[in-house]
Amino acid sequence: MRAIRNRFAQGDGLPFADALPESSIEPAIQEHGGGWRDEVFTPVVTPWAFLTQVICPVGCCRLAVARVLAWLVVRGEPPCGPGTGGYCKPAPGCPRAIPQLARHTGRGLHDRAPGTGGGTAAGC
């Protein structure tokens, strides 16, 4: 478990973007009445940044925003500013959708894990 946590914590940009795809996030957010309030910190990017923040040993908002900034630059998109305001105020519906997203992601990762009949987990 520690090795998986370290892999995500040390990954570049937003490592949860692969484990928690946009196609899973948008319907969950919309189901809970969510919408977009910020162009950068959408209901898709915010959970990726939050999960990265949670597993990081430092765990601060500024580091989460810095990782989003780096992710945007790597993708060739305009970088966001270093301020945490847009990130620290999640869009409506986002907090209520987290448990649903956690269950969906957990099922998906479990299905891909070795010994569960679903194939091989990436990086294992």
Could you explain how this protein is built, in words?
- By secondary structure, the chain is mostly helical.
- Helices cover 57% and strands 0% of the residues.
- The chain has seven helices and no strands.
- The chain has helices at 2-10, 16-19, 22-31, 45-55, 61-74, 85-88, 94-112.
- Helix 3 runs antiparallel to helix 7 and helix 4 packs across helix 5 (61-74).
- The chain is globular and about 45 Å long.
- It starts with a helix and ends in a 12-residue tail after the last helix.
- Mean pLDDT is 75; it is low at 119-124.
Specify Rg, calculated over alpha carbons: 15 Å
Beta strand %:
under 5%
Average pLDDT level: 75
Major sheet attributes: none
If helices are DSSP runs of H or I spanning 4 or more residues, what is the number of helices? 7
Provide the succession of SSEs: HHHHHHH
The separation of the N and C termini measures: 11 Å
Identify the overall geometry.
globular
Q: pLDDT under 50 segments (min length 5)?
A: 119-124
- Helix share bin: 55-70%
Number of separate strands: 0
What structural class do you assign from the helix and strand content? mainly alpha
Secondary-structure blueprint of this entry?
Elements: H1 2-10, H2 16-19, H3 22-31, H4 45-55, H5 61-74, H6 85-88, H7 94-112
The gist of it:
The chain has 124 residues and is mainly α. α4 packs across α5 (61-74).
What characteristics describe this protein?
single chain; 124 residues; mainly alpha; disordered C terminus
